[in-house]
Amino acid sequence: MTALQEVTPQEREGVRREALYFAVRNGKLLTGFGVVAVLLVLGLVGPLFTDVPPNQYGPRPMSPPSAEHWFGTTTFGQDIFAQFVHGLRSTFAVGAIGGGIAAVIGMLVGFTAGYRGGVVDEVLNMLTNVVLVIPALAVLLIVNAYLGIRSVAVQGLFIGLTQWPWAARAIRAQTFTLRSREFVDLARMSGAGTWRIITREIAPNMSSYLFMTFILLFGGSILIASSLDFIGLGPTDAVSLGLMLQNATQWSALQLGMWWWFVPPGAAITAVVGALYVANVGLDEVFNPKLREL
Amino acid sequence: MRRYFRRKLLVYGLTFFVAVTVNWMIPRFMPGDPVASMVARANMTQPQAVAAMRAYYNDLFGFDQPLWQQYLSFWGALLRGDFGLSIWLFPTPVGTVIADAVPYTLALVVPSVLLSWVVGNWFGAYAARRRVLDNTVLPIGYILTATPYMWLAVLLAWGLGVVAGLFPVAGGYSFSMQPTWSWAFLLDLLHHWALPFLSLFLVALGGWAIGMRNMIIYELESDYANYLSALGAPSRLIRRYAFRNAVLPQITGLALQLGVIVAGALVTEIVFAYPGLGSLILKAIQNSDFFLLQGTFLFIVLGVLIANFIIDIVYVVVDPRTRAGMAGADA
After folding, report:
1. Which residues form the ABC transmembrane type-1 domain (chain A) (predicted)?
2. Nearest Cα residue to B170 out of B153, B149, B182
3. Number of structural domains found in chain B
4. Residues B214 and B77 in one domain
5. Which ipTM did the prediction report?
6. Which residues in chain A touch residue B266, judged by CB atoms under 8 angstroms apart?
7. What is the pLDDT of residues A132-181, one digit of tens each?
8. What distance in Å separates the CA atoms of residue A79 and residue A63, rounded to the nearest whole number?
9. How many Å apart are CA B151 and CA B309, to the nearest integer?
10. Using omega within 30 degrees of 0 as the cis cutoff, is the peptide bond preceding B168 cis?
């Protein structure tokens, strides 16, 4: 028993080092995470350098990008760069909160259903399928319209509550394949409880899969949040990229040809989500030896 | 096969039940008083008017009855097709307002979903394992799937509509026209339909192409493909077999993506002020027309459920294993 435990950490260390070896050589992973990191830093640091509040009306409305207003100004003279960096913050926040909550629920449901099986699985699977079929945006519309409270955090919470089903299904299927492996049987025979087996034996063996699921949930949450903002149910106490798009179309930036108003927010959402997807493919190649290209 | 359909119908029935229950619960159990907020939004100063409006809403929701009775009467009204009256277009029933908008949404969603699925699958299958094509299709595909629907719609409206002036950017038909069955009107309808269709089509296209490409590569690595190529079968034939196997998960994927596509259609309609359900939702939110919002919600859920069921039937037709009750029946 002691010998076993001594070997395992070393083996894990080896696996980790191997993954790292391929990770730093994977172009997709590096580009994807690079783009996300640049935008994240911009969102974190940017607001410190712009002293104008993002929604403050300025003296020079509708001016195109210039040295003074890097991204130009809105019809009301608001500085678009200030809105952009603050909006990036909310976008990442909503992705982290929504993706995080969805990942936790998805893991709880997926592991329990996959490991326990039987009636528990039947019930949880039914629940998953029901939530899966209901269009998430429609539910969020109703909830947000009635709730009226619309902070970024609450928005993220409700997005998380509707996004988990496909993750739960995927994790359940993965758990099924691990459930009957020998090391799980060994743990069960040595008297480990369900929770311990799931956290110590099953979850670590699909950690890369879980991480990739989280990345996809993160991107999905950002997209659905931007749709909500665009319909007019966005946060009322913050700026977000979706709200910028909504304002731009609402105040006819299209007809006025103010491209600097609607291009940056959409481009940023596309860049973040697209980079996450590409990084995800890269991760898949790193963790799955079959997909590696040398 | 009977088991398969029984299971599916059970899930859909349960889903509809849950959706209706959620729809009933939200105004009643949400923190805050919806009646108070609706009355407040009407901006009235006279206390008698406020009291009258309060009584009207309380009566409308049936707040003075016990909860179980409210719930049963809610179902009763629903089964009679009574969704209440729209506040935005008072006294039009919500059902009529929705029925007027649905054809536009369907005309937009159905062709764009089917075409993007077919073309995307074709592209993906063709690009897989062809280096040059793969290197272009893949990045474009990822960018397209990551694009928010409304942003592509805005870009297309700006580029092809405002700058190039090729397409109108607002409405379902020209304001100077009356809806009739004339060629001129149909042409005008088509002209207004083109851009929203194109933006829905393009965003969905990327996802299908990527999915198909990955599935084809997976299938080409399987034993039967290797065996066939060892026998000297032409690669066209092997690809055709791979395609038939790869299409199955794409059909399931279509069912899973319906919610996202509908969401995309709603925001696209808002960009183009297209007179479908999306614009209806926007108007409902702007005018705090909660009956209209809830009616639209139920309608969208119902539509997605029906579409899911159609896909299930197609799946049974396409995959013979489900008919024999063999593996794959649970997919």
Report:
1. 88-282
2. B153
3. 2
4. no
5. 0.85
6. 137, 227, 231
7. 888 888 888 888 887 776 788 989 999 999 999 999 999 998 898 888 88
8. 10
9. 31
10. no
This model's pTM is above 0.90: no
CB B152 within 8 A of CB B160: no
Nearest CA in chain B to A138: B297
Which region holds residue B239: left if phi is over 0, alpha if psi is between -120 and 50, else beta? alpha
Q: What residues contact residue A104 under an 8 Å CB cut-off, 6+ apart?
A: none
Distance CA A216, CA A212 (A): 6
- Is B293 in contact with A141 (Cβ distance < 8 A)? yes
Could you tell me if B215 and B74 lie in one domain?
no
Q: Which helix (H) or strand (E) holds A102?
A: helix A80-116
Do B143 and A274 lie within an 8 Å CB cutoff?
yes
The whole-angstrom distance between B163's CA and the closest CA on chain A is 8
The structure tokens listed for A276 are: 């996450």
> B279 and B176 in one domain?
yes
For residue B75, being part of any structural domain is answered with yes
Structural domain includes residue A222 = yes
Residues 6+ apart with CB under 8 A from B12: A133, B305, B308, B309
pLDDT by residue for chain B (331 residues), tens digit each? Answer: 778 888 888 889 999 998 888 888 887 776 656 667 666 666 667 777 777 777 777 777 666 777 788 888 888 888 887 777 777 777 788 888 898 899 999 999 999 999 999 999 998 888 887 878 888 888 888 999 999 999 999 999 999 988 888 888 888 887 777 777 788 888 888 889 999 999 999 999 999 999 998 889 888 888 999 999 999 989 889 989 999 999 999 998 998 888 889 999 999 999 998 998 999 998 888 887 788 888 898 889 999 999 999 998 998 888 888 777 654 444 4
Picking from B139, B162, B301, the nearest residue to A135 by CB comes out as B301
